[in-house]
């Protein structure tokens, strides 16, 4: 996937998540039955996950050499997706810096704004990278080990879709929100 296709993939993944969460009431944005993260917490988690990517994209490339050179070619989007899914099925979970606190309704607008800012910053920073540099530099990922910058961006796009799918599946189970909440309380 070339850089322009990658920018489109990232833009679509952020936009799809924002569009879906925009359809949720404030209550559904901040409350989640069954002890799972709410939509607000998932958005907060995605913001926390995007920040270090943007930091890495904005660093001088000289500093990125600290993480070494990739030993192999960048894997495809599908390979990164499948590797991440495998790690999750083996018990992989978010590490402490990426675990969001409980979200309140008053935080919704700031979270939506921060999410959009992270997307805009990522696209702007990515535009300054060459195709070659995306495969030349790598950074550590807490669950997947060292990834090239291209792989990190593939992960970011899939990660957004993964959390979107989680939220959409909750809505498609055919149960009303009230019955899910009642089951969680009683």
Short synopsis of the structure:
The relative contact order is 0.22.
Give the tags.
two-stranded antiparallel ribbon, 2 strands, 65% helix, single chain
Architecture overview:
With 186 residues, the chain is mainly α. The protein is built from nine helices and two strands; from the N terminus they run H-H-H-H-H-H-H-E-E-H-H. It has helices spanning 3-22, 26-30, 39-58, 61-64, 77-89, 108-127, 131-136, 149-172, 177-185; strands at residues 138-141, 145-148. It has a two-stranded antiparallel sheet with strand order 1-2. Helix 1 packs parallel to helix 8 (149-172), helix 3 (39-58) runs parallel beside helix 6 and helix 5 (77-89) packs across helix 8 (149-172). It is globular and about 50 Å long. The chain starts with a helix and ends with a helix.
The number of E-state strands comes to 2
Cα-based radius of gyration, to the nearest Å: 17 Å
Classification by helices and strands = mainly alpha
Distance between the termini: 49 Å
Q: What characterizes the major β-sheet? A: 2 strands, antiparallel
* Low-pLDDT sequence parts: none
Shape: globular
Strand order of the largest sheet: 1-2
Per-chain topology:
Layout: H1 3-22, H2 26-30, H3 39-58, H4 61-64, H5 77-89, H6 108-127, H7 131-136, E1 138-141, E2 145-148, H8 149-172, H9 177-185
Antiparallel strand pairs: 1-2
Helix pairs in contact: 1-6, 1-8, 3-6, 3-8, 5-8
């Amino acid at each position: 996937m070339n850089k322009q296709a990658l920018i489109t993939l990232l833009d679509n993944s952020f936009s799809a998540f924002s569009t879906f969460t925009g359809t949720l009431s404030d209550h559904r944005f901040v409350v989640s039955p069954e002890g799972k993260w709410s939509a607000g917490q998932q958005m907060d988690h995605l913001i926390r996950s995007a920040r270090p990517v943007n930091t890495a994209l904005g660093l001088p490339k000289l500093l990125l050499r600290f993480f070494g050179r990739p030993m192999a070619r960048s894997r495809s989007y599908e390979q990164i997706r499948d590797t991440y899914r495998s790690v999750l099925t083996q018990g992989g979970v978010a590490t402490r810096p990426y675990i969001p606190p409980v979200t309140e309704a008053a935080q919704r607008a700031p979270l939506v704004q921060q999410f959009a800012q992270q997307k805009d910053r990522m696209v702007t920073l990515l535009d300054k990278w060459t195709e070659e540099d995306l495969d030349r530099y790598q950074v550590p990922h807490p669950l997947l080990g060292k990834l090239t910058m291209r792989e990190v961006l593939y992960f970011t796009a899939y990660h957004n879709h993964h959390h979107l799918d989680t939220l959409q599946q909750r809505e498609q189970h055919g149960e009303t929100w009230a019955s899910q909440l009642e089951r969680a309380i009683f």
